[in-house]
Design a protein that fits this description.
The protein is an alpha/beta fold. The protein is built from 9 helices and 10 strands. The strands form 2 sheets. Strands 1, 2, 4, 5, 7, 8, 9 and 10 form an 8-stranded mixed β-sheet that branches. Strand 7 and strand 8 form a beta hairpin. Helix 1 runs parallel beside helix 9 and helix 2 runs antiparallel to helix 5. The radius of gyration is 17 Å and the shape is globular.
Length: 257
């Protein structure tokens, strides 16, 4: 069992999972309580959204407040684009509202976000450029959101290539990687709308590759989120509590005094 040595360089990987990502906020709460320094952070999809704020020095309480304003999967926003049902602009505007026109390379904590080039399937690791654009790209669930164009590349959700973003943290020199997987072992209820159908399909398709990716984490937090759906932001308080509970259970076994 790998212990968390605070003197080592610690990286935090926050995985995708749509609205289930509120559980990441509970994990951040636990990390603060255990006084664990985070020296670098990587996020995929909703994990990119949370990591953007945390990397810029925003505490978990404030991120919780911001998350409650996230109308990201609002079905009323259905677009007429031939490449997606919804526009991802709400996500970008919410990031800019709180972080302004910030760039990834200027964050207080080094941060990376994963996206996928939908033209050739290439993994794209975003470490520079506009923060809001990077978050929009990483959270651009294919079939739901219209792809995001950055530097001539058409980008969609990073979960296709690395749903729990551990590899960027290795490249950033992390000695210990704490990873959060929101989808492991969840038992799902029947989907209630087309967005849930698409999200569930996406989740199933990446499940095996995610299991292989998380084997490389030194500390793995896997909250059981079977009681929640992937679209209702009203679940956020309970998701945060669930993430916190599971993180405390794992971290109390791993933190060196």
């Amino acid at each position: 069992m790998k212990k968390i040595n605070r003197k080592k360089k610690i990286g935090l990987a926050l995985g995708g999972g749509a609205v289930l990502g509120a559980a990441h906020i509970g994990v951040l709460k636990a990390i603060r309580e255990f006084d664990i320094p985070v020296h670098c952070i990587a996020g995929t999809s909703i994990g990119a959204f949370v990591s953007a704020f945390y990397a810029n020095g925003i505490d978990w309480e404030t991120i919780q407040t911001i998350a409650m304003d996230l109308k990201w999967l609002d079905l009323s926003g259905i677009s007429l684009s031939k490449r997606g049902l919804l526009s991802n602009e709400k996500m970008g505007k919410l990031v800019e509202k709180h972080l302004g026109k910030s760039n990834l390379e200027d964050a207080e904590i080094p941060v990376a976000m994963i996206a996928t080039n939908i033209v050739n399937g290439e993994k794209v690791v975003l470490k520079k450029g506009n923060t809001a654009d990077a978050v929009m790209a990483s959270t651009c669930i294919p079939g739901i959101f219209t792809p995001m164009e950055i530097n001539g590349r058409m980008l969609v959700d990073g979960g296709i290539v690395e749903n729990v973003p551990i590899s960027p943290l290795k490249e950033m020199g992390a000695d210990i990687i704490i990873a959060v997987d929101l989808n492991s072992g969840n038992k799902h209820k029947e989907p209630e709308n087309i967005v849930e159908v698409l999200l569930r399909t996406f989740d199933f398709l990446i499940k095996t590759s995610t299991e292989l990716q998380t084997e490389k984490a030194h500390v793995l937090i896997e909250p059981d989120l079977s009681d929640f759906n992937m679209v209702d932001i009203g679940q956020a308080p309970d998701l945060i509590e669930k993430g916190y509970y599971e993180a405390v259970k794992v971290l109390k076994q791993r933190v060196r005094s």
